[in-house]
Amino acid sequence: MNFWERVTGSDLTRQWKAFEARAAALPADYQQVWEQVKGHLFPFGDFSGRNLTPIADAALALLEEASADGQGVDEVFGDDVGGFCTALAGGQGARTYRDRWREQLNRNVARKLSRLGG
């Protein structure tokens, strides 16, 4: 990956298109779970989402292997896809982008208030 690809994000676009092509080859119930996985993982992404590509790749590989082995989706993910994704992204209590933005906003407000008060 060169600098230009990193700045424009074209490498990420290429990776996600490859993920979607792989997911399209899965059975319908696996594709539904893939959509849920993406929805549950995105809040754990950083600004660019680069930190999610290895996690999404691993989740998709798990779906592909389970499908090839003839396992049901429930056997692999259970009935809590969100909990599974939270565990993949860093465990219970993992910080989301909302948490990071909230902390940054609170720090900025506290700093401005301390300037006004002092």
Number of strands: 0
How would a crystallographer describe the biggest sheet? Answer: none
Number of helices: 7
Strand content: under 5%
Gyration radius, rounded: 18 Å
Q: Give the helix/strand class.
A: mainly alpha
- What is CATH's topology name? c-terminal domain of poly(a) binding protein
Shape: flat
pLDDT below 50 for ≥5 consecutive residues: which ranges? Answer: none
Question: Could you explain how this protein is built, in words?
Answer:
It is a single chain. The protein has 118 residues and is mostly helical. It is built from seven helices and no strands. The chain has a single domain (3-117), classed as Orthogonal Bundle (c-terminal domain of poly(a) binding protein). Helix 3 (28-41) crosses helix 6. The relative contact order is 0.11.
List the helices and strands and how they pair.
Elements: H1 3-8, H2 10-24, H3 28-41, H4 53-69, H5 73-77, H6 81-89, H7 97-117
Question: Could you provide a short overview of the structure?
Answer:
The chain has helices spanning 3-8, 10-24, 28-41, 53-69, 73-77, 81-89, 97-117.
Keywords:
mainly alpha, single chain, 118 residues
